[in-house]
Specification:
Structural class: mainly alpha
Number of domains: 2
Strand order of the largest sheet: 1-2
Shape: elongated
Number of helices: 6
Helix content: 55-70%
Number of strands: 2
Radius of gyration: 30 Å
Strand content: 5-15%
Length: 183
């Protein structure tokens, strides 16, 4: 397989590993912007800095904390896994940490377990908030699903029952009319 001459590569150390960015017909500056994004994400989710977003979330102990869109997406992924697989939220956070290789996220799961066990209830707070946020969507979806059978009766009557009734009447009344016509 022939490689394009426009492929650029950038290798750097971040997130506890060697990261590689590749781009086709992009400048070195674009790859450097990608490196900056990865490094910024790494500083947000590291456990080694007390100012990182993950450390602040770990220390919040049930308090509301503003999070970045990336952290929100990781937490939403854990919530989706919790709902689909019917596992505890803490286990879902562990699965997300394993899936995306974000080892620091395991500490959040541990803090959620400790908080849940000893009374802060942070995991319950997060799950309840997410479920309340989705309740309006679920209500409209349930309403649409419950109205569907009612809305589908008219087309069903018109396109299935009515032609079937006409066919039955034709099959019954045609021989009857033939017999009455001979009298």
């Amino acid at each position: 397989m022939r490689h394009s001459s426009g492929v650029q590569a950038l290798h750097f150390e971040a997130l506890g590993t060697i990261c590689s960015l590749f781009g086709l017909d992009v400048s070195r500056a674009h790859l450097s912007q990608g490196e900056v994004w990865v490094r910024v994400l790494g500083t947000r989710i590291t456990r080694f800095s007390k100012r990182s977003e993950l450390a602040i979330l770990n220390r919040s102990v049930g308090e509301w904390v503003d999070v970045s869109p990336e952290m929100e997406e990781l937490l939403r992924e854990a919530l989706r896994r919790k709902e689909v697989q019917r596992v505890e939220f803490e286990a879902a956070v562990d699965e997300v940490a394993d899936h995306y290789a974000v080892g620091e996220f395991h500490r959040l799961a541990d803090n959620l377990r400790v908080g849940h066990r000893y009374g802060t209830g942070m995991s319950t707070l997060l799950v309840d908030f997410a479920q309340r946020a989705r309740s309006s969507w679920h209500a409209s979806y349930r309403e649409r699903i419950t109205r569907a059978p009612v809305l589908m009766t008219v087309p069903a009557l018109m396109f299935f029952v009515l032609p079937l009734l006409v066919l039955v009447m034709f099959l019954v009344f045609t021989p009857l009319m033939g017999t009455l016509g001979r009298l």
